[in-house]
Amino acid sequence: MQSINGTNITNSTEPSSVEQYKEPEALYIFRVTLFAVIISASIIGNSMVFYAVWTIPSRKPLSYHLVANMAFAEILSSVCLAVMFASWQNPTKAVLQEAACVLNTFQVIALLVVTYSLAAIAFYRYRFIVNPLPRGPSVKKIIILTITGLWLLSFAIAFPFFIGLRFSNGRCIELPITNNEYYAISRFILNYALPYVIMLASYGAVAWNLKRRIVQIEERARNSTVAVELEDLCNQSEDRGEKGSSCAYFHYVLIS
Questions:
Q1: How far apart are CA 170 and CA 73, in angstroms?
Q2: What does the DSSP 8-state code read for residue 192?
Q3: Radius of gyration of the chain measured on its C-alpha atoms
Q4: What ranges make up the beta strands (E) of the chain?
Q5: Model's pTM, two decimal places?
Q6: What is the DSSP string of 214-233?
Q7: Percentage of the chain exceeding pLDDT 70
Q8: Average of pLDDT values for 132-143?
Q9: Which pLDDT score is estimated for 1?
């Protein structure tokens, strides 16, 4: 079989027979140039983001560290993809083929870190609005544990690839441990479904809390306006000498 990133991976239980065709030279140049531009932009752009966050002198919130962590994972993913693309263009070079087979797992880990970093940023924004994290030495511990946890979780999900991909006879062989429907379903849930559920739930809760606060602010503003109007009416009635029940009623409304 052939993976989505272009690395030639052969199922150990099925023979592979792919019919090749001659690619036009113009299309080849366009494809390679476009890929080089995208990968270069990714590496340079994410390097600038990582450097900008890293060099901020003041204390950085958790979201800044998560963005830097995501930028580093994007750089790792881009480097892995560059090697895989080179191996795809040079199928006869065993060194590139073996490197691509090894880096395939690290590229999966990097993509997992990016996805879970986005989910962590969404959850952090929810906590920041509803229940902000405490300031102090504990924040640094939370940052370290969060980023370490993201990488360990991603490594655990992609671990079967470390033992399920083997380079043999110029090909990257995929063993049954990674080529089965149970692992595919589990990986889909952990790779995509779970992070996106976290993001949807977090941003949905943020939107609901913001809407509730807006309603509360509008209610307080409306009550304040009514109170001012009632006080003006009371003052006007006193100026006209209409003391007694009307003014007392207005004061009662203001107090209540």
A1: 28
A2: I
A3: 30
A4: 9-11, 165-168, 171-174
A5: 0.73
A6: HHHHHHHHHHHHHHHHHHHH
A7: 76
A8: 73
A9: 44
The fold of the 25-179 domain, in CATH, is: Rhopdopsin 7-helix transmembrane proteins (1.20.1070)
Residue 13: band (very low, low, confident or very high) from pLDDT cuts 50, 70, 90: very low
Residue 155 near residue 146, CB atoms below 8 Å: no
Q: How far apart, in whole angstroms, are the C-alpha atoms of residue 94 and residue 168?
A: 10
Residues 6+ apart with CB under 8 A from 124: 62, 63, 66
Report helix, strand and coil shares of the chain as percent, to nearest 5. 75, 5, 20
Distance CA 5, CA 111 (A): 12
- Backbone angle region of 209, left / alpha / beta, with phi > 0 → left and psi within -120 to 50 → alpha: alpha
The CA-based angle 26-27-29, given to 5 degrees, is 65
Give the CA distances from residue 98 to residues 69, 84, 104, 174, in Å, rounded to whole numbers and listed in that order.
Answer: 28, 10, 10, 13
The residue ranges of every structural domain in the chain are 25-179, 181-255
What is the average per-residue pLDDT within 111-122? 93
